[in-house]
Amino acid sequence: MTDITKPATAVNIEAKLALFAEQWAPHRIAGINDYDVKIAKVQGEFVWHTHEATDELFLVVSGLLTIQLRDGDVVLGPGEIYVVPKGVEHCPRAEEETAILMLEPAGTVNTGSAGGPRTREPVPLD
Fold it and tell me: According to the UniProt record, where is the region Disordered (predicted)?
């Protein structure tokens, strides 16, 4: 939600990424309507999961991200986006530390249908 009592300021993604080191932990940097704009640092392989009710947008800020899909992988570099359609099983993976931005409805669980120890609530940085 936008707080109209705060002065208007731009969000610097690089500055927000510098505030944390933990990987695979989403951080909320903004909201738009009923959506969260989240960033994360990732390395290694996540978990295979689906989001039955929503699409999920990934934008690579730095590094390389592979979105593994059952019918073929999508490799993203800086400035590239991919939208995983709702209900499609996927597993993000990064060989080196990669910074990503995600756009999805507020309340979307990062591990989708899989749950487990990597499930995290987004940490607000907005």
Answer: 105-126
∠20-79-92 over CA atoms, to 5°? Answer: 60
The structure's pTM equals 0.90
Distance CA 2, CA 99 (A): 24
Whether 116 is covered by a domain: the verdict is: no
Residue 13's φ and ψ, nearest 5 degrees, are -60, -45
Residue-number span of the structural domain to which 57 is assigned: 13-108
7: in domain: no
Number of domains in the chain: 1
pLDDT tens digit string along 45-100?
999 999 999 999 999 999 999 999 999 999 999 999 999 999 999 999 999 999 99
14: part of which helix (H) or strand (E)?
helix 13-17
